[in-house]
Amino acid sequence: MRRSRRINLGSFDEVAAISCRYVLGERAEKARMLDEFVALTGFHRKHAMRLLRGEREPAKGGPRPGRRVYGDDVRAALVVVWEASDRICGKRPHPLLPTLIEAMERHGHGDMNSETRRQLLTMSPATIDRVLKEIKARATGPRRRKGSTAIRRSVPVRTFSDWDDPAPGFVEADLVSHSGQYARGALSQTLVLTDIATGWTECAPLLVSEQTVLITALTELRKLLPFPLLGFDTDNDSVFMNESVHEYCLRDNIELTRCRPYRKNDQAFVEQKNGAIVRKIVRYRRFEGLRATRELAKLYSSMRLFVNFFQPSFKLKEKHRDGAKVIKRYDRPATPYQRLLDDARTPEDTCLRLKAMYLTLDPVRLLRDIRLAQERFVEIADKPDGPPATDGEALPLEDFLSGLRIAWRGGEVKPTARSKPAAKRERRRPDPLLAVTAELEEWFEPWRTSRELLERLQVKYPGVYPDGLIRTVQRRMKIWRSTQANAQVFGPFADAARQTEIVEVVQ
């Protein structure tokens, strides 16, 4: 390592004189004085520059007309070559220049002289980028910045293996989209929070996916949590990775972390709750608008109590690999409420408050309220333009409880699990043969073909009924043949329902 030498520079006036001459000198003179000063003192070159410059600001860089190497003709030729290469970006045009120029000249597309061609081929990739910078900005617009990039870099990454028995209050968060088959428009979403230590889960609906709406929902969920929010682990969605959420966590002393991109197993706790709670109860229908969001809020108010107090779950205790086999061992199933009481880090007043709440909860009543909310959800999803969903009359608890004894006979009992009824297929355009249907039926005989009837129709009404109507005539004759065969077999009083069924099938 180079060791700096301490040289006696004399008085302060001598150093000030050198500094004054350095500041007022030309570029070449500055370089010579700086070399001498560094050789005498042993200072680092940058430190010597700052010392000689003193309090003065460094001269700002700008255009250097005297040092300009490539003229306007070279720059114009570069633009033509760049356009001919279909505006490829970055350093890619540099190795293409010889091949592209030679091909253009071979086919008579180049009119540059030898000097311009030589300078263009000696241009460096960095110079190409500098020359084309303004051209690209005017042609394609300014480069779009990626959102929340600085925020993502400032938020530390936490993987699944980094959780080491955290205290209650460190949660994983995720958004569940209720988009149905098409993820477009302002659809409703669910914010899910899952505590790592206990599995306590809270859900809140979001009218739109927006950071201020998220912060409002998170503030309301913190009031429902039986413990203070200490950590907030999310994915890399811009709804989480933004200045608003970042400042919110800093202000309330909440540790903000994120998972690795495209690694869902880093958030295994909340991902499991997305399927076991939200998807199991709400399913996959599309919900949007204020009506659906309000019904989601009512559903989650009953669901949170039923899940956290009466739904036990497993928790992974340990796992190890034996060759290709992974052996996992789990703790005894327990509800989040029980795990919270068993945790020694839970305050005594929190335990007393949870025990008092537990004594007031009726699981059958909560389940009935969940089923009623699911019924309203089905009405909203299947009939979005219908009247607003009403609370309706709740089934008495005795009747609901007696129904649980035989509910297994009907298979799936969740209203949201029932498939949406298929819309009845109807005619989507006017009947082109409506005016001549009676006339065609008079001409109909079982041995005649559809082509014969259509040709007879075209002769009587020239230019009105084209050949493309042959399939329509065939379907019409199929109905008439079936009706005639049915009458011959069962008599003139054949079942009208059978005829109606045939018409629907043919249409």
List the helices and strands and how they pair.
Layout (H helix, E strand, L loop, with lengths): L11 H13 L2 H15 L3 H9 L18 H13 L8 H14 L7 H9 L2 H16 L8 H6 L15 E8 L11 E7 L5 E6 L4 H14 L6 E4 L8 H9 L3 E4 L9 H15 L6 H22 L5 E7 L2 E6 L5 H7 L5 H12 L3 H20 L14 H8 L32 H7 L6 H11 L9 H21 L5 H11 L1
Parallel strand pairs: 1-4, 4-5
Antiparallel strand pairs: 1-2, 2-3, 6-7
Helix pairs in contact: 4-6, 12-15, 18-19, 19-20
Helix content: 40-55%
Distance between the termini: 91 Å
Q: Give the SSE string.
A: HHHHHHHHEEEHEHEHHEEHHHHHHHH
- Side by side, the strands of the main sheet go 3-2-1-4-5
Strand share of the residues? Answer: 5-15%
* Rg value: 39 Å
The profile of the biggest β sheet is: 5 strands, mixed
**Assembly type of the shown chains?**
single chain
Mean pLDDT: 82
Q: How many strand units?
A: 7
What's the number of helices?
Answer: 20
Molecular shape: flat
Structural class designation: alpha/beta
Q: Uncertain regions: pLDDT < 50 for 5+ in a row?
A: 1-7
